[in-house]
Amino acid sequence: MLDMPRLIITGASGFIGYHALNYFREKGYETLGIDKVAKENVLMCDLTNFDDAYKLFEDFKPDYVIHLAVIMKDEEFKLMRDNLMMNLNVLEASLRVGVKRFVYMSSSAVYGLPTKDEPLDEEAKLKPMSGYAASKAATEYLALRYCLLGLPCIIFRGFEVYGKGVTSGIVKTFVENALSKKHIKVFCYGEQKTDFTHVLDLCEAYELGLKKLDPCRVYNVGSGVPRSYKDLAETVRSVLGCSVEYLPCREKDVVFKVYPSINRLRSYGFEPKRLDLKKGIEEVASHYR
């Protein structure tokens, strides 16, 4: 019997991590989930401590790593410092134990908030507008450096990821308001536009990253179908029967158009399957009812 491939998923207690852990276990990977928060099938580890991280990697000896762990909220200096320290530690530990493929989950936040209504490709200029986004952009460069040191890294830029159990973002906000208040407020008249990506399509992209994608490259990952906040609100209304109120922009609101071209990923055979937003909203709502 062939040995099962060994995979570490960091951030495995989070929304995406939880789904990725289950997805790859069902695919036959021997999978270790690690996070700063211990849960069932997830080991607690402070990845900002290199010795702790390296010991875990050395003991498990992973063939692959999917690095999802991230600190999203903190005082800005601490957030950037701790994210960069954690990401550098995970990269170095992976290099030392001979990981065959390293997948890093970056974010569309590296593009900033463009207002031109056209898809973003991977060559678009980076304009991070927060400490979180800056740490994501900086880690992309760290990962590309580690490629040159011998660690095959694949970088994904994700957009608005949603699905059952989603813990943050506009989909969660709209669904929760529809269920609790029976009312959704949509600013900027819902003209903001993004890509709502089902978490299981994202997991399929990760698998492609472990098996087929060329390393040392950046890949946008999404549904390939741009949708506005109005589209989302009307879909939530059709599913949950709430009222929707469209309002002008507030002082700091931006009518952004942040959605990807996924042609690079499609050239390797990626084709998202879960494009029915109504069905996706029903799935999210079933978790919060």
Q: Describe it for me?
A:
The chain is α/β, with parallel strands linked by helices and 289 residues long. It folds into two domains: 6-160 and 197-220, NAD(P)-binding Rossmann-like Domain (Rossmann fold, 3-Layer(aba) Sandwich); 164-195 and 226-258 and 275-288, UDP-galactose 4-epimerase, domain 1 (Alpha-Beta Complex), CATH 3.90.25.10. Helices cover 40% and strands 20% of the residues. The chain contains nine helices and 13 strands. It has helices at 15-26, 50-60, 76-97, 131-149, 170-180, 199-211, 229-240, 263-266, 277-288, and strands at 6-10, 30-35, 42-44, 64-67, 101-107, 153-158, 160-162, 183-186, 193-198, 217-220, 226-228, 243-246, 257-258. The longest helix is centred in the first third of the chain and has 22 residues, at 76-97. The radius of gyration is 19 Å and the shape is globular. The N and C termini lie far apart (44 Å). The model has no long low-confidence stretch (mean pLDDT 96).
Principal-axes geometry comes out as globular
Q: Supply the number of helical segments.
A: 9
The CATH architecture of the largest domain can be given as: 3-Layer(aba) Sandwich
Provide the spatial order of strands within the biggest beta sheet: 3-2-1-4-5-6-10
Share in β-strands: 15-25%
> The biggest beta sheet, please?
7 strands, parallel
* Cα-based radius of gyration, to the nearest Å: 19 Å
Can you identify the CATH superfamily of the largest domain? NAD(P)-binding Rossmann-like Domain
Provide the CATH topology of the largest domain.
Rossmann fold
* Poorly predicted runs of 5 or more residues: none
Q: How many strand elements?
A: 13
